[in-house]
Design a protein that fits this description.
By secondary structure, this protein is an all-alpha fold. It contains 6 helices and no strands.
């Protein structure tokens, strides 16, 4: 491993947190995109409701992986400081992505299943890519920021 890559991956660096959070986001986006296609194309569930189910399936894994792996937190999470704000941020992203996926679903309703199976997850992933920067900043600077006690140690 190069010295540059090693320095990027040092625990606690912003670069490491960006790479880890991005990896978690990619993983949960792939999970939700697969569920979206299965529901919307395979099972005939309307795109909007299918997106709600798909995104909700990725929220808990995203919280747990980001909390533990990206920000190195262990033990029980604070309901008021971490859990509720994380879910609120995730629900806001869910609302935005559901609106875009529902619009794409309506526009592609008469398309072939193969075309819809490509367009819907691309729209979902594109929406989440745009929202990812905001999510990272909020997670890093607000939700998982070090508490005053940790900073003083």
């Amino acid at each position: 491993m190069s010295a540059r890559l090693r320095s990027l991956l040092q625990h606690g660096t912003t670069s490491r947190r960006v790479l880890c959070c991005l990896s978690v986001s990619v993983g949960t986006t792939v999970l939700s995109a697969a569920i979206l296609v299965i529901l919307a194309v395979g099972a005939g569930v309307p795109a909007g409701p299918a997106n709600i189910i798909a995104v909700c399936c990725g929220i808990l894994p995203s919280y747990l992986a980001n909390r533990r792996w990206t920000w190195g937190r262990s033990g029980r999470g604070s309901m008021a400081r971490e859990v509720v704000p994380f879910w609120a941020l995730s629900i806001a992203g869910l609302l935005v992505s559901t609106a875009t996926v529902a619009a794409a679903g309506a526009l592609t309703a008469d398309w072939s299943p193969a075309s819809r199976g490509l367009v819907l997850p691309v729209v979902q992933a594109g929406t989440f890519a745009i929202l990812w920067v905001v999510q990272f900043v909020v997670l890093d600077r607000v939700i998982f920021r070090p508490s005053r006690e940790l900073e003083l140690r």
